[in-house]
Amino acid sequence: MSHTPAVRPRRLAAALAVALTTAALTPALAAPAGAAAPVKSKVTIKAAGVDLFGKVKSKRTKCKVGRTVLVFKVLDDGNHLFSTDTTDERGRWDTGNTGQEGTFFAKVRKTPTCKAAKSPRIEAVRND
Asked: Which range is the signal sequence, renumbered to this chain (predicted)?
């Protein structure tokens, strides 16, 4: 099947119209001017006996202050939410004495301005 020369310019014009419309709308669909891109966060976890604590670190203050830290305990049937805490003005968090031995890790969820983060796993062992 061959195309007549008159059909090709119409197809080209239609494709060009779609491309120009898409290009014109793309800035309107992008993030608003001045909106900051989410920044990297890091969450740490340590154990002193069965006391779990750590810190949320970030270049942006609002990404470390007042963040909710989720502490998970690793069990045979999966990871279970074990405790939560809110970071202080220096990004520190502390569950206190949990009374529980085991494998744990911490997470912070993403926010509009902060990326999510997950710590490595640690072992908490009671100091007798």
From this structure: 1-30
Q: Length of the chain in residues, anyone?
A: 128
Which of 87, 86, 84, 88 has its CA nearest to residue 104?
Answer: 84
Residue with tokens 């001045």: 34
Distances in whole angstroms, Cα of residue 86 to Cα of each of 1, 62, 63? 69, 12, 12
Which backbone phi and psi does 9 adopt, to 5 degrees? -60, -35
Structure tokens, 48: 């002193």
Residue-wise pLDDT tens digits, 39-72: 999 999 999 999 999 999 999 999 999 999 999 9
Structural domains of the chain sorted by starting position, each given as residue range(s) with its CATH number in brackets: 41-124 (2.60.40.730)
CA distance 31 to 22: 16
Burial class, 67, CB count within 10 angstroms (exposed 0-12 / middle 13-18 / buried 19+): buried
